[in-house]
Design a protein that fits this description.
Oligomer: single chain
Distance between the termini: 53 Å
Number of helices: 49
Number of strands: 3
Largest sheet: 2 strands, antiparallel
Strand content: under 5%
Shape: flat
Length: 936
């Protein structure tokens, strides 16, 4: 961990000429201090610490005590014993000095706070580091070392946040170094850390840019060689292998990486280079890279085993099986984590050389030694493959069984099922019996395909009884649909070939009943596939319809029933064809039903234009106005889906014409308006809403039409028009569910028009609603009243808003974000400072920006009004020390608070700072006058 200590300027008030020889016989406190300070000045820190502590113990109130306290802490911080610093002692000393003598010179205090934070950092205490350095950064001092301290403080903050797994805060801290302290020593290290954060987040392009920038700006920094290694790693992660290889090789040739201090970094570069070659499948280069890595790793380094494993894997992928085996051999004997993969790939190397028996032996050894390893399922599967290739099908089947029983949820289990199926289909009767025995001990659902293949093999041999028996076992187990259908078909076929016609008929009937749309349906003479429509048994319905057609039944009804069964059964294309036949009926009732059914079937296929044409045809075939309008509405919706908005609007107009007085006409205008809304055709949308309001005043949709017209006016910033539109809704439909929305939107319109009284009244009228605006309305009512200079009335609304939101567990984040502003307004409306302070205080923690600044000022102002001077100091301090609208009065009240808490010197400094502020104002004048009063 890097330490970047700065010499704290603790001797600013000591005599520069102090020498040890002149005060050896120190008797007075002044002489004691000069002795101790001289030791500190001579960098004899251990002795200085002892003498300074003696002085402080004996003279805690001496004028030199405040300087000595900080020197004592600094001496402890700089005292090394066996190369180590007693950080806890230094931390305790700094804490004591800061607490005991807070009025020491500002630069000294700042330096002490920095070194306190640095000591925490070097003690691996990230939380305490953050707290201490955050406090330091509030007042980093003004001496020449202040920027450097601030740079390192932000760097330490970033590292501490990283330790606490808070990358966003860490990033912000490191970026502060770059934006504010880019010329300090912390800059290159911060750039390095930013790059690493981006790498951790998978943002490789950003990381590459940062590392490149670091090397360009700070080529001679300690971070530059490290950045080059990480640059290569980021390029590797970004799959820019050529650049990664070039960068990493350059890093390895960098003389700055030589030496023991950078040994780990060099090893990391070698590892990354090897991984680059491996990832890019440059197997020969990868073996050489891993060789170089192994040569750099110490003999007892645990990373050697993994490097050797990867070298073996490179040989394996290069199909250099002999070299792979030689490389894996010592790893197999190592007993470490690399032993299992080394053993597995040793077996695979033998397998690839067609040494199946030897491979099987190693796979068995693997399963015995590592039964729970991740590679165990694959090892068991490959054991079966090796035995199968070694012409031992019975043992191979046993191995595949092992996969299915021990690793049932693995991918290897699925592969084992397929392997068993292949094995079963190529065996003679004797071997088939042996495989059947293996399968009998397994769940039928897991090996149904293999059993079915055995059944097919028996059928091919002419052993029909055996075939039917095996296929029946499969069908009874009810595996997946395809396998079951094949099993039933095979049963029927086997019994048919065995001259068992009734049994075959039974099997085929079950097949076509169970799988009416199966691939083998035609072969099985599918006939009974559907249920009656009134029972939602579509197969029976289709069967009945076709039977009726074949028998010469009523054509229109039968075709319509068949089409309906096809539609409900998901046979959309045939359904459209049959509905088209019905649509040509001379009976308009059936024709209209045919057009509607065809439209529905086409809609399910997203064929919107074709569906729209069918809805239009239906509209021409029916005479009832509402039915006709409904068809036109469906036509308009379909055309809208087809992105033909102009034609859709014509269809909606036709619906209004068909039902000019009914709800269907209103519904058509409603759909037309929303279609225009989605197409961003504002004028068309507004015209539709207006017509709905005008032509259908009694429709349940009319309030929404008025409201949406108001929303259009609001979006167009036509404030008066919007307010008038909402007023029309509220006057005509005061009890409508949209009334609260209308009141809120009307208030918004008045507010934007700066009609504060009207806005407040509208917001006040917002009633209860499930939406968040009902909670939000009091805030905007208060804001309107405040802008109208009615702060007293505003206060009650602010209070109502605060209490409602804070007591509502479901309040949104947006509402909670308004709480600080609401408390600010509420606090300004109350009559006493004590009340105001109570209101302001809870909002301070969550306030942001200007609101937080004003809240701090108002709270400080309220506290000073109650003579709570010490409480006011930390509240006013951030306002008084930054540029804002309240800087001058905040400085006055901060000075008053300091004066009244006994910090006369600090108070005088603040008065003087305020008096010099430009331009002059009442506060600068008050400060100037008060300075004269304080003069002796």
């Amino acid at each position: 961990m890097k330490r970047h200590s700065l010499i704290v300027p603790l001797l600013v008030f000591a005599l520069a000429s102090t020498s040890l020889s002149s005060v050896v016989w120190a008797e007075t406190p002044q002489e004691q201090y000069h002795t101790a300070s001289g030791l500190y000045d001579a960098r004899l820190y251990s002795t200085a610490a002892q003498e300074l502590k003696k002085f402080l113990d004996a003279n805690p109130t001496d004028t030199n005590a405040k300087i000595a306290a900080y020197q004592w802490a600094g001496a402890l911080y700089r005292t090394q014993k066996d190369g180590d610093v007693d950080y806890p002692a230094a931390i305790k000393a700094y804490q004591w000095a800061l607490q005991k003598y807070p009025t020491a010179p500002a630069n000294m205090v700042a330096a002490a706070r920095f070194e306190l934070g640095e000591a925490y950092y070097l003690s691996n205490k990230p939380t305490e580091t953050i707290s201490a350095l955050t406090e330091f950064l509030k007042n980093p001092g003004t001496d020449k070392d202040a920027p450097t301290r601030s740079g390192w403080a932000n760097y330490y903050l970033g590292k501490s946040y990283s330790d606490l797994k808070k990358p966003a805060q860490a990033r912000a801290a490191f970026e502060t170094v770059q934006s504010k302290f880019a010329t300090t020593e912390a800059a290159p290290d911060s750039l390095l850390e930013l790059g690493l954060i981006n790498m951790d987040a998978g943002q490789n392009a950003a990381a590459i840019a940062l590392f490149t920038n670091l090397r360009a700006k700070f080529p001679d920094s300690d971070a530059a060689p490290e950045a080059r290694v990480y640059l290569g790693e980021a390029q590797l992660s970004a799959k820019n292998y050529g650049a990664a290889r070039e960068t990493l090789r350059a890093a390895l040739n960098d003389p700055k990486l030589s030496g023991d201090q950078n040994k780990d970094l060099k090893i990391e570069a070698l590892q990354d280079l090897a991984d680059t070659d491996f990832t890019e499948k440059k197997w020969e280069e990868a073996t050489q890279s891993y060789d170089a890595l192994l040569q750099s790793l110490p003999a007892n380094d645990a990373r050697r085993l993994n490097a050797q494993l990867q070298r073996g894997n490179a040989f394996f992928n290069a199909k250099n099986w002999g070299a792979a085996l030689e490389n894996y051999a010592p790893l197999v004997k190592s007993g470490g984590k690399t032993a299992p993969p080394a053993l597995y790939y040793s077996a695979s190397s033998l397998f690839e050389q067609s040494k199946f028996s030897e491979a099987a032996g190693l796979y068995r050894q693997f399963l015995a030694s590592f039964p729970n390893h991740d590679l165990a399922p694959k090892a068991a599967l490959r054991l079966g493959d090796a035995l199968a290739d070694a012409k031992d099908p019975a043992q191979a089947a046993q191995a595949y069984k092992m996969v299915l029983t021990r690793f049932p949820g693995s991918k290897s289990a699925k592969d084992a099922q397929d392997a068993l199926t292949d094995l079963a289909g190529t065996q003679d009767a004797g071997t088939g019996d042996a495989i059947e025995k293996v399968l009998s001990g397994l769940p039928a659902s897991a090996v149904s395909n293999a059993q079915l293949r055995l059944a097919q093999a028996a059928f091919d041999r002419g052993d029909f009884a055996k075939s039917a028996q095996l296929a029946s076992v499969v069908a009874t187990a009810k595996p997946d649909a395809t396998t079951t259908e094949n099993a039933l078909y095979l049963i029927g076929s086997a019994r048919l070939n065995a001259k068992d016609a009734p049994g075959a008929a039974s099997a085929f009937t079950k097949q076509v009943t169970t799988f009416p749309k199966g691939k083998l349906a035609a072969q099985g003479n599918l006939g009974l596939a559907w249920a009656f429509e009134d029972q939602k048994k579509w197969a029976d319905s289709e069967k009945a319809a076709r039977a009726a057609l074949l028998a010469g039944g009523e054509k229109d009804r039968a075709q319509l029933a068949l089409a309906s069964a096809l539609l409900n059964g998901g046979k959309l294309a045939p359904a459209v064809t049959v509905f088209a036949v019905v649509e040509k009926s001379t009976d308009k009732t059936f024709a209209a039903q045919g057009a509607q059914g065809g439209a529905l079937a086409l809609e399910k296929q997203s064929l919107w234009r074709e569906a729209a044409a069918r809805w239009g045809k239906r509209a021409t075939l029916v005479s009832d106005g509402d039915v006709k309008a409904r068809a036109y509405i469906r036509q308009g919706l379909a055309l809208g889906k087809a992105k033909d908005n102009a034609s859709a609007q014509l269809a909606f107009d036709a619906a209004v014409t068909a039902a000019p007085k009914s709800d269907m006409g209103a519904q058509a205008l409603y759909e037309a308006a929303w279609l225009a809304h989605d197409a961003k055709q504002t004028q068309v949308e507004s015209a539709r809403w207006t017509r709905l309001e005008t032509d259908f005043p009694d429709s349940k949709l009319t309030p929404e039409a008025i409201f949406q017209n108001g929303e259009l006016a609001l979006s167009a910033k036509k404030w008066d028009e919007a307010a008038a539109t909402y007023e029309r809704l509220l006057q005509k439909y005061p009890a409508d569910k949209l009334a609260p929305n209308a009141n809120f939107s009307q208030g918004t319109a008045y507010y934007n028009a700066q009609k504060w009284t009207e806005a407040a009244a509208a917001f006040d009228k917002v009633g209860p609603s499930k939406e968040s605006f009902s909670l939000e309305a009091p805030f905007w009512a208060a804001e309107s009243l405040r802008k109208g200079s009615n702060l007293t009335e505003a206060g009650s609304r602010y209070q109502k808003f605060v209490q409602a939101v804070e007591n509502n567990a479901k309040a949104t984040a947006e509402l909670k974000a308004l709480l600080p502003a609401a408390r600010l307004g509420w606090g300004q409306s109350v009559s006493t400072p004590a009340q105001a302070a109570t209101i302001y205080q809870p909002a301070l923690a969550s306030a942001q920006g200007k609101t937080k600044t004003e809240l701090s000022f108002r709270l400080g102002e309220a506290l000073t009004a109650q003579n709570k001077w010490s409480q006011a100091v930390p509240v006013l301090l951030p306002v008084a020390t930054s540029e804002n609208d309240w800087t001058a009065p905040a400085q006055w009240w901060l000075a008053q608070s300091l004066e009244n808490t006994g910090a006369k010197a600090d108070a005088l400094a603040m008065y003087q700072k305020l008096a010099k502020s430009q331009p002059s104002n009442q506060w600068t004048e008050k400060a100037a006058a008060h300075i004269k009063e304080l003069a002796p």
